Fold this protein.
Amino acid sequence: MGLVLERIQTGGLAQLSYVIGDDAAGVGAVIDPRRDVDVYLSTLRDRRLRLAHIIETHIHADFVSGAHELSARTGADIAGGDGDYAFKLRRLHEGDRIGLGGASLHVLHTPGHTPEHVSLLAFDSNQGDQAFGVFTGDTLFNMDVGRPDLVGHGTEKKLAADLYHSLFHKLLPLGDRIEVFPCHGAGSACGKSIGDRLQSTIGNERLFNPALQDRSQSAFVAWLLSGMPEPPAHYARLKNLNAAGAPIRGGVPPVPPLPPAELQRRQTGGTTILDCRSILAFGGGHIPGALNVALRPEFPTWAGRVLDPEIGVAVVVEDVHDLEAVAAHLFRIGIDKVEGYLHDGMTSWQNAGLALARTPQWTVHELDARRRDADVLVLDVRTEEEWQRGHVPGARHIFVPHLARQADKLARDKCIVTYCGTGYRASIAASLLQRHGFAHVANVPGSWTAWRAAGLPVEN
């Protein structure tokens, strides 16, 4: 009996949160909770812990915090760094201590990813008086560090310099044996390229993390800010939401079934149809005007990029069992106006005799054979960095999130063929173009991965 430490991993967001406490004392804390909080309540109940503290390492930008949901359910207080929170919370400062029976957390102010960011040194009285680990939030990851450009307002260089100090003067001096418990794993856009390990040590990161090489502060700032990928546009919205305090919903709301006629009526009234089926299923037949964001690990990030939270959404799924995951993902990124799902899927739509749209799927060999045709426009929708490393000869480039506002620059009398890294983002792009009235659009499954595997020509 003693220390309890449970990691909660949230797929799609690549987000990591924690339950820590002392089951002998029956008291615990949750660090960086996601919005659907039943998983924490279940863990606390199973480990016989009373939730005393909800701790935010920083104001999150990539998901809706569950701090208020947890507080409303349990009465526990919320604690966080001394930042731009617009609600009452316990403000944490360097040196503050949070007692949890035989366990305790000691606060380090570690700005850089955000100004108010704190890390939490973890102690267990059964293992001496030295810290055994540190909850680093978005300051330090496996093989990466937090990006300093999400706050905006021209603060990137200042925050990058702050991050250097947090890493080299606060975290690294803790010693190589200290375990590192970050807020994200691989797949999160809160770093440049986060590694695969969900837990690390200061020693491992000192040896292998490229951000922790021996550099001056100015060299670190220049290195960190060079080649930084574009932040997802919805991050600013989520950061503002979390700073204000997310509204309490009581959990993921149920998503009701909608018959085809009702879904069509809602679409006519402005509801967005979000088709979560695979890119090949979508290509074979879909509701005209639907957006395709397939239910894969990337789903939350891309749904956040293309959906307007002020506009209602109705979803189409391959199998009704997918609905639970889709609803949870949308809830976690603050898409709350989910009106329903297409009852019995596309089978009910086609049986109702309603219109179907298609997106032709070209192999890379078809693309290579036709890319020089006068009536074909090849469109690369990857990031600028991917484009610079090599692309299909003669292609044009527009990154997917910019496509809606740049669509008018594309010729409507041509067949626009979209490609990305694997076809996932290209299918999103193709559906966006079709939604904007482009009549001749095709997608390339496999995309750049298949192009390179086939040994086809590359332009740099």
Observations:
- The mean pLDDT is 97.
